[in-house]
Write a structure and sequence with these properties.
Layout lengths: L8 E5 L4 H11 L6 E6 L2 H8 L5 E5 L6 H14 L5 E4 L17 H31 L4 E5 L13 H20 L5 E3 L1 E3 L14 H4 L6 H14 L3 E3 L2 H9 L3 H16 L2
Parallel strand pairs: 1-2, 1-4, 2-3, 4-5, 5-6, 7-8
Length: about 270
Amino acid sequence: MPGIKDAKCVLVLGATSGIGRALALAIHDLDSKPTVIVSGRRQERLDELASHGERIKTARVDINTSEDNLKKFVTDTVSNYPDLDAVIFSSGIQHIFDFTKPDTIDFNKFQDEISTNYISIFKLIVLFLPHLLKLSDKGRPSFVVPITSGLSIVPSATVPDYSATKAALHSLSITLRLQLAKTNVQVIEILPPLVESELHDHQGKTPVLSKVWMPLKEFTEHAMAGLIRGDPNIPVGTASQDFNHFEKGKQEAAQKFYERMLSMSST
């Protein structure tokens, strides 16, 4: 089965820190020597990443932007890198919301979180698909790689909206995989556990979480092994335990339901 080792050009959205940055560097180091486009909001961090090798290119974007800006970003990226055959969606933000104190819930933070973690990713997948499907028609494999979370399976009450956005992206990954099953576009979902990251710095939780999170290096090794194999789902650590317990048979059940709907629509 094709895996990320077969990709010629990989775009990593949300590559300026954490999981996105680690995966971008690990993919760059593959023996297949792909071009890696790193993307994010902070140009200085993109420039630092580019210093790691000539095959690392930069493309600045804030995905929480207008539809027109997203379209321009996709058009420019595909034009500049026609060999682009893999897109990894690592962008994400996380906020704590306490429903026992509803007056403290900031709707702007809620809107930013749901837009960054789900709505913008949905739009970007749709916008990149015409290019990837053209590659598929030529017999070339390509890859859509959403990074969700173990919280898409078992949510955390402290980050309810974050958990909901990841659950939405997880569900989208399942249905996207079903619709693209007869193409050469592979959907590979990475489901991290709690991983060493800057994601929690603004919450003031890093000192506590650092005692229990998975080291970024260890996570990256597991995630890369699944990407190289081309596994459709790559749950890591505690996310793997939850995936095996709660998700067994879900893809197959969704497929049967999809086939039933297709059958009904054709009669």
